[in-house]
């Protein structure tokens, strides 16, 4: 297929471009950053610079595509003013899905977020109702990032009601790659009390890219939402023990697939997408949370 990937110069978009190209698709990356004005290497994916908050840019890059992977976004709410986060993330999603519907694109993969339920960046903190968290958990966002991602998923619902497009929203957990495992997950590997809002969950960017390929190629009808997280938790801790020690009985503990389970369940992605992650924090870190040297 001819696939457009937005946010192509970001952590997730770059991995998605490479994975889709490796799977045999004709890929065009899109981002707000400037292109490199040099000869393209044989087989190198194409690239277009665009500001997707502008509807004209969105229509221009979507034209001729069979599928869209929308990964472009400000990736969290704390480093930009709230209105900038909300306007950028919501309008880029609106413009891209609007262009996809109007131009007859058949498949749209929306990169949403694990933060959608709302307990990651709240002004009035609250805990999840239960763990591991799954797609049925209630949604109560407060911050502009989670709100925009939630509304993005609702835009997918509207798109399938008014057209024949098929949409999948992926909610990745905290995305890691070989350059940031030690910095981000090292403290959690060393100390199980460092649960974080994601309850020790994480996802390797290359496993996420595999899920993006499966979602792009999927024939699932309508709009489906999937959490994407590694099956194990950061540090391989006894999850039930860590939860009891930190939260007592404040969070309902539901059945676990394994003792070192993640705080996010991906059973739906395994069942409907056939997604099976291959990587773990142990590929990059030792038991002290330090980067492996070989």
Automatic annotation (TrEMBL):
Task: State the Pfam families in the record.
Answer: Epimerase
- Domain NAD-dependent epimerase/dehydratase positions: 3-218
Q: What is this protein called?
A: NAD(P)-dependent oxidoreductase
């Amino acid at each position: 297929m001819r696939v457009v990937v937005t946010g192509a110069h970001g952590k997730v978009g770059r991995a998605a471009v490479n994975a889709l190209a490796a799977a045999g698709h004709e890929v065009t990356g899109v981002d707000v950053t400037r292109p490199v004005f040099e000869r393209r290497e044989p087989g190198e994916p194409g690239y277009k610079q665009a500001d997707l908050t502008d509807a004209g840019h969105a229509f221009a890059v979507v034209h001729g595509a069979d599928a869209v992977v929308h990964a472009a976004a400000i990736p969290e709410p704390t480093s930009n003013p709230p209105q900038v986060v909300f306007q950028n993330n919501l309008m880029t999603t609106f413009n891209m899905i609007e262009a996809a519907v109007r131009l007859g694109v058949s498949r749209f993969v929306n990169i949403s977020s694990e933060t959608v339920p709302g307990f990651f960046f709240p002004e009035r903190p609250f805990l999840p109702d239960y763990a591991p968290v799954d797609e049925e958990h209630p949604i109560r966002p407060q911050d502009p990032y989670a709100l925009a991602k939630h509304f993005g998923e609702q835009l997918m619902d509207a798109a399938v009601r008014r057209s024949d497009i098929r949409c999948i929203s992926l909610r990745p957990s905290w995305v890691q790659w070989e350059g940031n495992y030690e910095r981000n997950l090292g403290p959690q590997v060393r100390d199980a009390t460092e649960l974080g809002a994601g309850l020790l969950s994480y996802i390797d960017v290359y496993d996420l890219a595999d899920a993006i390929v499966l979602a792009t190629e999927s024939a699932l009808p309508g709009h489906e939402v999937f959490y994407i997280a590694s099956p194990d938790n950061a540090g391989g801790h006894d999850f039930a023990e860590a939860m009891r020690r930190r939260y007592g009985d404040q969070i309902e503990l539901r059945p676990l697939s394994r003792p070192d389970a993640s705080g996010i369940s991906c059973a739906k992605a395994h069942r409907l997408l056939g997604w099976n992650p291959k990587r773990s924090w142990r590929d990059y870190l030792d038991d002290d949370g330090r980067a492996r040297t070989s």
